[in-house]
Amino acid sequence: MHVVVNAAISIDGKLSTRRREQVAISGERDFERVSELRANNDAILVGIGTVLADDPHLVVEGSYRKRRQDQGLIPTPHRIIIDSRARTPTDAEVLDDEAPTYIIVSESAPTSRQADLEVEGANVMIAGRDRVSMPAALSALADSGMSSIMVEGGGEIIFSLFEANLVDELSVYVGSMLIGGRDAPTLADGDGFIDDPTQLQLTSVKQIDDGVLLQYDVETTASTYDSID
Ligand SMILES: NC(=O)c1ccc[n+]([C@@H]2O[C@H](COP(=O)([O-])OP(=O)(O)OC[C@H]3O[C@@H](n4cnc5c(N)ncnc54)[C@H](OP(=O)(O)O)[C@@H]3O)[C@@H](O)[C@H]2O)c1
Ligand SMILES: Nc1nc(=O)c(N)c(NC[C@H](O)[C@H](O)[C@H](O)COP(=O)(O)O)[nH]1
Predict the structure, then answer these.
(1) Is 58 close to ligand 2, i.e. is its CB under 6 Å away?
(2) Ligand 2 in reach of 152 Cβ (< 6 A)
(3) Ligand 2 centroid vs 8 CA: distance in angstroms?
(4) What is the C-alpha to C-alpha distance for residues 91 and 125, in angstroms, rounded to an integer?
(5) CB 34 less than 6 A from any atom of ligand 2
(6) DSSP class of residue 194?
(7) Which stretches make up the Bacterial bifunctional deaminase-reductase C-terminal domain (predicted)?
(8) In a designed cystine with 175, which of 25, 64, 122, 193 is the match (CB 3.0 to 4.6 A)?
(9) Is 29's C-beta closer than 6 angstroms to any atom of ligand 1?
(10) Ligand closest to the CA atom of residue 23
């Protein structure tokens, strides 16, 4: 499974405000690049924190749909929500019928909530006991035929994927703004690394709109990575 993480941060590393309200950090051209990246992957993945904060739609439009259909693919990629307790609202944008949606829950998710989401057309998968296990989730998605995932955040999900050594590429758009706030979400939250921070190889630096796009390959250690084909 090829995993690319893409996110936009302020110069001080924030994904949004301390109120977790969505901030448009990217400009027009960078959002266009994000659509291209979405269209080039089998699935788009976010955490429940992003769904509750932004109510994202997570689809591609127009020429990207045509191009995918010409390649024999579904018009817009699968949508994946990491949501241990099945808290996704039943009227969430990601549950519309524009694309298949997988909600990955843990064994602690109430069966009634799972059933409510299935009624809305979601494919509910269980991976993990108290919290979603990211290696098990990606393994289950690989078993259902997906081979590439674009992760759009937020900070908790991004850190867990790096912690489990599951990320291959990282692209970060740094917008020319300062958000501040010790409680504002950052690119990678979670517990953080003490020893052994993830090493990245810088592969590209370019200006887009009035910001900078940084692209990295991730140096992965063998273990977890080899087990998910
Ligand atoms: N600027 C950008 O590019 C960008 C992109 C995305 C989001 N955002 C912003 O980021 C904020 C949301 O980020 P967030 O960190 O709060 O939420 P998140 O990463 O989207 O979701 C985190 C939640 O996922 C669930 N989860 C389940 N299994 C997990 C695991 N193994 N590891 C980590 N999380 C797991 C947890 O809730 P449960 O335990 O209930 O399952 C956790 O609270 C919003 O303000 C949004 O606007 C910005
Ligand atoms: N690349 C990027 N630049 C930003 O400035 C920003 N705020 C996000 N945020 C990502 C987050 O996942 C959003 O929720 C979805 O980008 C919304 O997706 P839709 O447009 O509704 O499909 N992503």
Answers:
(1) yes
(2) yes
(3) 8
(4) 19
(5) yes
(6) S
(7) 2-214
(8) 25
(9) no
(10) 2
Tell me which ligand sits closest to the C-alpha of residue 161.
1
Choose among 34, 8, 32: nearest CA to 179.
Answer: 8
List the residue whose alpha carbon is closest to atom 7 of ligand 2: 24
2-220: what CATH class?
alpha beta
Q: How many CB atoms are closer than 10 A to CB 196?
A: 7
Per-residue pLDDT tens digits of the chain, which is 229 residues long: 999 999 999 999 999 999 999 999 999 999 999 999 999 999 999 999 999 999 999 999 999 999 999 999 999 999 999 999 999 999 999 999 999 999 999 999 999 999 999 999 999 999 999 999 999 999 999 999 999 999 999 999 999 999 999 999 999 999 999 999 999 999 999 999 999 999 999 999 999 999 999 999 997 655 444 444 4
Q: Is the CB of residue 34 below 6 angstroms from any atom belonging to ligand 1?
A: no
Spatial contact of 134 and 80, defined as CB atoms under 8 Å apart: no
Interior angle at CA 59, CA 98 and CA 116, nearest 5: 50
Where do the structural domains in the chain lie, given as residue ranges? 2-220
Please tell me if the CB atom of residue 46 comes closer than 6 angstroms to any atom of ligand 2.
Answer: yes
